[in-house]
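Fill in residues.
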């Protein structure tokens, strides 16, 4: 299981969800106490995109990892 801290803007959400749906494992997005499925566009849009989001992957996919690397924050 891998956790990555990312920041998304409204334009990135569609690409993020699209990349997540191509993965055959669960991906969670967390901010404070809120947890949503990364494959749910409504769930991701309901997050506070002005904050850093924590993405927890329960598997590996090189394309999705590349997307996360582009949006990774320290």
């Amino acid at each position: 299981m891998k956790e990555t801290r990312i920041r998304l803007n409204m334009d990135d959400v569609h690409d993020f969800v699209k990349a997540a749906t191509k993965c055959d494992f669960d991906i969670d997005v967390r901010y404070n106490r809120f947890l949503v499925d990364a494959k749910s566009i409504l769930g991701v849009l309901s997050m506070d995109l002005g904050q850093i989001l924590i993405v927890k992957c329960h598997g590996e996919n090189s394309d999705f990892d590349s997307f996360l690397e582009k949006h990774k924050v320290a």
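The radius of gyration is 11 Å.
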